[in-house]
Amino acid sequence: MLRYLPLVLKSCWRNRRRTTLTVLSVAASLSLLGVLMAIYHAFYLSDPTPEQALRLAVRHRVSLVFTMPESYGQKIRQIPGVKEVMMQNWFGGVYKDRRPENLFARFMIESDRIFAIRPEIQVSEEQKKAFQRDRRGALMSRPLADRLGIKPGDRFTLQGDIFPGSYEFTLRAVFDSPDAADLMYFDRKYVEEGLIAYRRGNVGMFAVLAETPEAVPRIARAIEDEFRNSPVAVKAEPERQFQLGFINSLGNVKMFLLSICAAVTFTVLLVTANTMAMSARERVREVGILKTLGFTRETILGLILGEAALVAATGGLIGLLLASALCAVVRQAPAFFTPLKTLMVPAPVALGCLGVAVAVGLVSAFTPAWGAARIPIVEALRAEE
């Protein structure tokens, strides 16, 4: 069949404007499909990092809005298999204003435990000690510090909302991490000291480090059982599952992504089907001539299907390049969920998108190709151009 490739290429290029527009339409649709599938893969199919596989998140069983007593931390630490426990609160607040470029995640943590809980954080020993010594010190991811234009030693202010007040910080350490999102950490004692008595000693979440990944499910069950009959029941889950649960609180994200993917695929099908139907109608006499020259039905069917597959595959390849560029843009945008900071089009997604493009091209072209291949020679030769 490869010997007919020049003929297929010539047929594709016979109407350059239509072929170009079809390729661009498929490319635009496949670029969107590629980004959506990459996001779906990052959220639901990618494996957690070795560090994430060791961590659990413990929160109030009802909602993240509610807090837990900090005394729970000591009880969790006594459960067999637990290596370290850290108290953590979402701070919220406002940096300068509420414009998107000034949005980033801000967490109150225990500065003497953060590096044990998150060993993937890479920071110089000098900056680490400076951060731990300064109660008002801040620890930022390098992408965030670069975006805000803040260097170690610079001061900045956050206006609290969950924790009302004006809080001044000094950037003491900038860290690197393979999956660093836009994150800022600071010691929770700084805020705790300024709270009224009844608001002190409350924790939004406990970050728990297990000794082995195999121990994580057992530790999660033990933690939930420990506080099952307490005034404040808790929910313990692996860190990655907790992150997905936070995303799903926005709605059925999985169904939303799959629905858009289905709509995009259907759009590609319509575009390609329309092009191939027009192409088949215009080439009825040409099909008759090919039959008089000895071309079989199967060969003619293969030529038309090959043309459709080539057009769709070309659009798919261009779409994948556009999808990779869009993923690069997403990586530069502010993001709280770490997989978005490393978003890319992995090989399985690329092959899947390309397969969808080719399959849609073949399906859309089959009916007009089959009709053209079956038309009698005399009827084909009598047809008008």
Structural notes for this entry:
The protein has 385 residues and is of the alpha+beta class. The chain folds into two domains: 177 residues, no CATH class; 165 residues, no CATH class. Helices cover 52% and strands 16% of the residues. The protein has 14 helices and eleven strands.
Number of separate helices? 14
What's the number of extended β-strand segments? Answer: 11
Percent of residues in beta strands? 15-25%
Mean pLDDT reading: 85
Largest sheet: 9 strands, mixed
Strand order of the largest sheet: 6-7-5-8-4-3-10-1-11
The helix fraction, in percent, is: 40-55%
Structural class: alpha+beta
Gyration radius (Cα, Å) is 29 Å
Oligomeric status: single chain
Order of helices and strands: HHEEHEEHHEHEEEHEEHEHHHHHH
Topology readout:
Elements: H1 5-12, H2 16-45, E1 55-60, E2 68-69, H3 72-77, E3 82-90, E4 105-109, H4 114-117, H5 125-133, E5 137-141, H6 142-148, E6 155-160, E7 165-175, E8 183-187, H7 188-192, E9 202-203, E10 205-210, H8 216-226, E11 234-238, H9 239-248, H10 253-282, H11 284-292, H12 297-332, H13 347-374, H14 377-382
Parallel strand pairs: 4-8, 5-7
Antiparallel strand pairs: 1-10, 1-11, 2-9, 3-4, 3-10, 5-8, 6-7
Helix pairs in contact: 1-12, 2-10, 2-12, 2-13, 10-13, 12-13
